Amino acid sequence: MRERVRSETRDVEGYKVKRAAQNLIMLGCCCLTAGSPVVAEQSTYPRPPAPENVTISNGGLSITFNISWGAVVVAISNDKVAHGLNIVDTHDVERELQVDQFLHLLIEGHESLMINPTQAGALGRQAFYMHPVGIRIPEVGSKVEQYKAGSSDFQAIISPLDYDTGKPTKWVYVEDVRISDQGVARFHFSFYNHETATYLLESEVPTLYSDWTDAFLYPTVSPYDSTLASYRDRTNGDWPVRMIHAGRWPAGHLRSHGWIANIDTKDNVGIFYTTPVGHPETYGTFPNAAFSGREPLGKSNVTTGKITCYPEDAYSIEYSVLVSTIKDGPSLISKQPAAIVKVLRNAPPRVSK
Asked: What pTM, to 2 d.p., does this model score?
């Protein structure tokens, strides 16, 4: 049985934002609109608490955020496509549509993952360097310090937890999402790092897990190539694409040409999102997952690649998201602004003499 996402108003007041976010606009109490995208069949794993859902909607597109799981996106649907079916996977805090960071240190010449700040929260087995046997930790959601929702816009400030330990990290994520009248969402994240060590950083910006995903669609040429402007100008023009019926994750490794889509061919619906051109992309399915009624599960992501991350670094990512059919989606997403990664601050600390 498919059920609908519930949403309720929740007020959050009186907190202090960490240093890098102090100059940001303070977000007031939330007010939300009624929105009810269709969701997939109940999982055998606990879902994010439905009373913590906040939905925004405009132009047919609806997006649902879960406040108890770091304001992560748990549903994306378009009431004009597949009867408003949502295929975002919400089996646990590892999934959904979200952002996260992987920070590595060099230990005896080898890279070791030390911190994994994850938007939704923590669920997993502690890595060997944290515990020689490994300790299973309970599922716990990242804290939303404050949020605000209008009819078609949402903002939140998030303190992401380390995925392996469930402990707070010294990062701040600032999320801003706005849906246009045309039914396209523009996501903007800013990331502020208050860790004291220098790391090799790799970010998933973003990663998307989805149910009933048996294929992936991506362009073979970039819509942001100036020589291909004629494609963008066509009202109903097709875009050169390739659709892959993928195997087990990770089934494919790409360099972004500007967007990628997780596709449910049975229901003719896809979640399309723009990705920074030239950045690494990966896709694949989890065909033998033990979840009743929701197979196959799919994942796609785009990463920054490994960059040196100094204390007090800050950077941002912008990308567009829409839900469409296999036929119409490529042209629609190709007309959206390019996804952009910006370095707001990236400089080694000064060494006093």
From this structure: 0.83
